[in-house]
Amino acid sequence: MKRSLVQQRNEMPGAVLKWWLSSGQSNPTFYLQKGLQAYVLRKKPPGQLLPKAHKIDREFKVQQALFSTGFPVPQPLLYCSDVSIIGTEFYLMEYVQGRIFRDFSLPGLNPAERSAIYVAIIETLARLHSLNVHSLQLKGYGTGAGYCRRQVSTWTKQYEAAAHQDIPAMRQLSEWLMKNLPDNDSQESLIHGDFKLDNIVFHPKECRVIAVLDWELSTIGHPLSDVAHLSMFYFWPRTIPMINRGSHFHTSIGIPSMEELISVYCRCRGIHSNLPNWNFFLALSYFKLAGIAQGVYNRYLLGNNSSEDSFLFANTVQPLAETGLQLSKRSFNTELPRVDNTQQLFVQTRKGQEVLEKVKRFMKQHVLPAEKEVHEYYVQNENSAGVWRQPSVIDKLKEMAKAEGLWNLFLPAVSGLSQVDYALIAEETGKCHFAPNVFNCQAPDTGNMEVLHLYGSEEQKQRWLEPLLQGSIASAFCMTEPDVASSDATNIECSIQRDGDSYVVTGKKWWSSGAGNPNCKIAIVLGRTETTSVSRHKQHSMILVPLDSPGVKVVRPLSVFGYLDQLHGGHMEIHFNQVRVPSSNLILGEGRGFEISQGRLGPGRIHHCMRSIGVAERALQVMCERSAQRNTFKKKLYEHEVVAHWIAESRIAIEEIRLLTLKAAHSIDTLGSAKARKEIAMIKVAAPRAVCKIIDRAIQVCGGAGVSQDYPLANM
After folding, report:
1. Phi and psi at residue 152, in whole multiples of 5°?
2. Were both Cys, which of 5, 121, 144, 404 would link to 220 (CB 3.0–4.6 Å)?
3. Which residue ranges of the chain lie beneath pLDDT 70?
4. What is the pLDDT of residue 311?
5. Residue partners of 109: CB distance under 8 A and separation at least 6
6. Sheet containing strand 76-80, strands side by side
7. Is the peptide bond before 107 cis (omega within 30 degrees of 0)?
8. Does residue 608 contact residue 527 with C-beta atoms inside 8 Å?
9. Which residues make Cβ contacts (< 8 Å) with residue 637, sequence separation at least 6?
10. Closest by alpha carbon to 279, among 332, 233, 231?
11. What stretches of 342-410 show up as alpha helix (H) in DSSP?
12. What does the pLDDT read at residue 248?
């Protein structure tokens, strides 16, 4: 390389190769220095290449055009098509000194800096898309109209040319994209093609973009493809590392939401912020990236890739394609929700407002209309083993909810929602008895997932938490015992005894909710371990027990007022007879069961209160509808003073417990569960007491029908 550059003395006399810039997965990039002046060289990879890939002459051409307009790109200096110089075509540009961030969560920056960085990025993108294509003198640079169709076709061919195995999701995604091309596929802007955080150089001290890099995929096309590409990190699959091995994105303080970025972009461009066909452009972005990953791995197999870790890309193609397929099924409203917070005491985040609106729409359009089908399933299967299985309509609803991103909303670290956000969402799901299950927010799985998230080892998380978060298995929580007064949990007698590399669990449990679900694979069991501690609250431990372990016997279901609650797996009596499990199944350590319980029960108790408010709202709705339909003594029921009084008292009670619930949620958000224990204790008493009274009034108004299967009140 040095000798070849020395031959170019007319252009770069004395330039010396200093090091290889290895961050790219595509065109090899090198840092050169001549005296105090620094340069960057980009070249084609050696060897056989895919058609239309690695056109570095296009990179040079577009950077020339942009630099002349004052758009932030490195100054292009020299393009050389003579492959005899260094073996391939190459070009030189100035080296721009600044900051490049590779972790999308921007660790080490304060919230204001994070926000400013992302605003600067999206404003730069809007500036690019606002340029007049014709004035850039890029004739023949791209066809323009029909961009989306060409992209689907091109990347399908690129993928097929590089594929080393059949991935059905790629084929399905390609077919969906081609069948769902946007109507406005005639928009023409100069687009970058790979516009993301690590392709941008920021000022060394200011949150200001000073250069946009890597124009290999740039062309004339639809601008929303760039916006969608930048937004991909909001939906990144948890099963694979983030780009550049950065942190998986959670709602970090200061990072704008996707809707906020889109709002800034649209304001800069003077267009409406509710972007059409947004699911198409997100799905297309994941399809393209999956195709790129396949190409990177193909070059690794051919031995001509520029990165040492390119072999890892083989495992990313399928998850990327599956994510794109899921996004294709989602409906999006990219406009910021307009909510008046001036009269709210406990304010939701913007993301919370958006998710709540989505949940309300999903409940109205899909969940509530399915109630009749679910009810008929359990009537038809009342005396068969199928009564413990969930009807297929619920499985279908779960897939739809997951595709919409309405999944695991209860867990802040996954959903990015606050407890106040989730309080109002849980209230909405509480209006239908199977709705929490649709969103993977059902007890006891929520509490068990919180335990594993907060206290589980990496091995425990991988084996049990991930399948629970995916909804592929269910779980049970085994604490209460038939032979002792379990309201004082220090009475628990079930033993967990150490025996070499194992623990042996022996005892009886009942009211183990969820254990009747055929999909229930794991139970968290509270039991007594041998300890020298004199503290009554340090003598118990929690351990994971697979339900297929030898010695586990599900004895019988327990009914509640005659109901078996088969929908969520019922409440079981379970006997553990010398059940042996690995010592690695112990959670956190011996004697720490009560510590875990308090961490679990804080959010868990308030989640029940949140849902119960939804139950109360549904009961009040039934009460009002029935009182408007029925006549007694020549007037409507609601015209009778006692019924009007019940309705008014019920509304007052709901407003009271909602405020107390929101206060408890706000305290958890701001102080933590431990310091919010008084608020949690108050609402766990006030909410069920008020809700039971409201349900009783609704039953009275409905008469005999109120206790029948024709109304949901008795089951409430």
Report:
1. -60, -45
2. 144
3. 1-26, 47-54, 242-253, 302-313, 338-344, 601-602
4. 57
5. 117, 254
6. 16-21, 29-34, 37-43, 90-94, 76-80
7. no
8. no
9. 626, 627, 628, 630, 631, 643, 701
10. 332
11. 350-362, 371-380, 392-403
12. 55
For the record, the structure tokens of 273 come out as 């912020």
Please say whether the beta carbons of 478 and 512 come within 8 A. yes
Would you call 51 helix, strand, or coil by DSSP? coil
Q: Which residue has the tokens 């997932």?
A: 449
Q: Say how far apart CA 538 and CA 292 lie, in whole Å.
A: 54
Q: Between helices 168-179 and 147-162, what is the axis angle to 10°?
A: 160
- Give 52: exposed, middle or buried? Use CB within 10 Å, 0-12, 13-18, 19+: exposed
Q: What integer pLDDT is reported at residue 392 of this predicted model?
A: 94
Provide the 10 A C-beta neighbour count for residue 692.
15
User: Could you please report the per-residue DSSP string of 397-419?
Assistant: HHHHHHHTT--STT-HHHH---H
Q: Is 471 in a helix, a strand, or coil? A: coil
pLDDT for position 541: 94
Q: Is residue 115 within 8 Å of residue 256, measured between CB atoms?
A: yes
d(C-alpha 484, C-alpha 480), whole Å: 8
| Token pair of 88 as six digits | 């391939």
Look at residue 346 in the predicted model and tell me its pLDDT.
81
User: Is residue 693 classed as helix, strand or coil in its secondary structure?
Assistant: helix
User: Which pLDDT does position 8 carry in this prediction?
Assistant: 45
